[in-house]
Amino acid sequence: MAKVLEIRVGPAADALDRFEAAWNRKVEGRPVKTLSVLTLPTLARLVKTLSPARWALDSARLNRMEEASHCAPGPSRQPGWPVPASVVTTPSGVTLRMAWLPVSAT
Predict the structure, then answer these.
(1) How far apart are CA 82 and CA 79, in angstroms?
(2) What is the distance between the alpha carbons of residues 52 and 59, in angstroms, rounded to a whole number?
(3) pLDDT at position 83, please?
(4) CA atoms of 54 and 23, how far apart (whole Å)
(5) In angstroms, rounded to a whole number, what is the distance separating the alpha carbons of residues 33 and 31?
(6) CB neighbourhood size of 88 (10 A)
(7) Type and span of the H or E element at 24
(8) Alpha-carbon distance 53 to 68, whole Å?
């Protein structure tokens, strides 16, 4: 399946509109379509940002990412030391209290 990056010239508010539309679709239980959109504010910014040299670099990087996406799912590397902390949570409305107890004689 070919991946498509849509390049647009327009205000940043367009991105917020797309986000809001996706949010509303999700809330309503409808499927959310994944979009790959790059919006730049002006044509001058587009030409400056996507110069031929930049385009060549980005194309090579995107090709590597495409190849990597076909690998088996899993962590990119094994976790090192220290092991990530575990987080303990409590149900809503539960309060835990701690108290200092006297030292035991035994």
Answers:
(1) 8
(2) 10
(3) 59
(4) 33
(5) 6
(6) 6
(7) helix 13-27
(8) 23
Answer yes or no: is pLDDT of 23 > 60. Answer: yes
Q: For position 50, what pLDDT does the model report?
A: 78
Q: What is the DSSP string of 39-71?
A: EES-HHHHHHHT-HHHHHHHHHHHHHHHHHTTS
Residue type (1 letter), 80: G
User: Is residue 2 predicted with pLDDT exceeding 60?
Assistant: no
Q: Is the pTM of this model over 0.90?
A: no
Model confidence over 57-91: pLDDT tens digits? Answer: 777 777 776 676 666 666 666 656 665 566 666 67
Give the residue from 29, 37, 41, 33 showing the smallest Cα distance to 5: 37
3-class SS shares of the chain: helix, strand, coil, % to 5? 35, 10, 55
pLDDT of 96: 66
Return the structure tokens found at 41: 């504010």
Q: Which two tokens stand for residue 31?
A: 């499927």
